[in-house]
Structure prediction request, 151 residues.
Amino acid sequence: MMTKLFTIAAISFTFLFNAQTTELKSTVLPVIIASELSEISFSTLVVDKKEMAYDSKDLFEFEFTNTGEFPLIISNVQTSCGCTQLTNNYSTPIAPGQISKLAFSYATTRVGEFSKSITVTSNGSLEPLLLTIKGIVLPAPIMTEPVSIIK
Prediction:
């Protein structure tokens, strides 16, 4: 009886160990070669629009500079939800010294206060950078019917 329990435990452990090993092997991490590491400098990491009109088309813009010696390549831009969208292309490498920007829109049909994060991955930093957009979307204006006075 004890041998059977030991055998079952050993088999279970083997399956569990192999499952974890397989999971680790399938994870692919980006590799940045130190000699190709550039440098990215944002003018601000937070854009606060304060109060925004309902259904406005205002953009949140983050200006940045390649302060490194190599072309800056932005490999990924990830927003925290579907209500925030990147509005420009980031696939072109940015030359050393060049200034560029990332622009985002927010679904301003969602009334109230918001704060959304954006993760930017590039060869300008070993860790992804976190940008934040925030503000308050005001309620839609109330439309009133014209009043006519007939006597």
The two ends are 103 Å apart (CA to CA). The longest strand covers residues 112-122. The domain at 36-137 is CATH 2.60.40.10 (Immunoglobulin-like).
